[in-house]
Amino acid sequence: MQTVNDKLKILKEKNAHVNLGGGVERLEAQHKLGKMTAHERLHLLYDNGFYDELFRFVQHHATAFGLGGKDLPADGVVTGLGAVRGRLVYASSQDFTVMGGSVGLKHAWKICEIMDMALKAGAPYISVNDSGGARIQEGVDSLQGYGRIFYYNTLLSGVVPQISIIAGPCAGGAAYSPALMDFIVMVKGTGQMFIAGPEVIKEATGETISAEELGGAYAQAAQSGNVHFIARDDADAIEIVQSLLSYLPNNNTEDPPFHGTGDLTIIEDEALNHVVPDDPRDPYNMFDILQMVLDPGSLFEVHSHYAKNMIVCFARLNGRVVGVLANQPLEKFGAIDIDASDKASRFVRFCNAFNIPLITFVDVPGFLPGVEQEFGGIIRHGAKMLFSFSAATVPKISVVVRKAYGGAYLAMCAKALGADRIAAWPTAEIAVMGAEGAVNVLYRGEIKSAADPQTRRKELIEEYKLQFSNPYQAAQQGMVDAVIEPKKTRAYLSVALESLRNKRELRPQKKHGLIPM
What we know:
alpha/beta, 2-enoyl-CoA Hydratase, Chain A, domain 1, 3 domains, eight-stranded mixed sheet, seven-stranded mixed sheet
């Protein structure tokens, strides 16, 4: 008969065995690759390295081909919960040292169970991906497992934040789970994500490309836009996740974390009056404006490597979290293209789902022209922005800094799309199109017949700007609430945001709108 001490001894032995994952040699191999182990990643994620591991002794189906009687510690994935900066967070961390972190039915079951717990508790879910893919030995059971993970990703979507870390391989169907989540952080050098690897592509199309060029961090961040953040190593990835969580609420019924006293800090920075160049064709860095207006050190850019003509970031204004969108004149003169449309739309929809007010800074000459853009579906992609802003019910505030032309002006959350407050700087040019283009269309005959066509064209351009391309014309029509001195932008936004704290907006009841896909 076993005594209590005997049972405790067995428990300690089993715990030690599971902690070792695939064994000392494989743990050392993981470290040689510059990667942390599954347990180490969670120890670093959670406060004081403490977390409650669940489903520790779950094992694969004994009927799996070639796995009968084989011990797979924790079935290749560590699942648990703990506090991240004092807030409850659920997580799963795949263990590459156990059969390459391959996903079988029970492996997937553990992940789904922890996701279901996050859903019921209304707490964020973090997934650390480091897996060779589906466990072939379990056949279609592994596909069933993946399908359930995708299903739960969808159930959690818009209810609790979901963040994925790609710390190792994430190939084939496995890549779709991170793609269904809200944010992806990829570790440079060790993280890889693609549907078909280099060998498959070469066999199918004859194209030759390395795994890093195809699915590495920079490729997925800058080219495909799948990845939102690039991390130097595992530790940096976890720090990014911790910082990101500080801007997000626990779930869609709560407001984002507040950092401050509740007092409005009104700072008038005289430098704002001189940011925009006198020549409307000259670019400037929109980040200069954002840093002077928003709380110091609070800018947290998302998707920084992708579609750089559109800035999206989290920030704070008087301690309150806001989602910021802005055109970047340094890139493509701030014009909106297909990628910028997708980037902005996704960010708007996330902020709206999680009660984060939206502030836009507008300097947009239009949608990017070109055959490639037209054939690529700029109409459909641009419509996503119109849909996203129109559907958003959180507070929406816009500041027109300079150019605001045509449909692109509307797409940056104009009054017509439900903006609650709109301010314009004196440098704002709000019109159907730029003065040069408008004059060429409206006065082509007059210019052609003039004694000095070039001089007459310049005169007409100046007349058009005075009459139409200024914020006062829009203000007369109620499209702009106020024309403000640039240095007063923070004061305007602070009061507007505070006045909209209790905003409520009722919409027709429906399952969901049909966003242009």
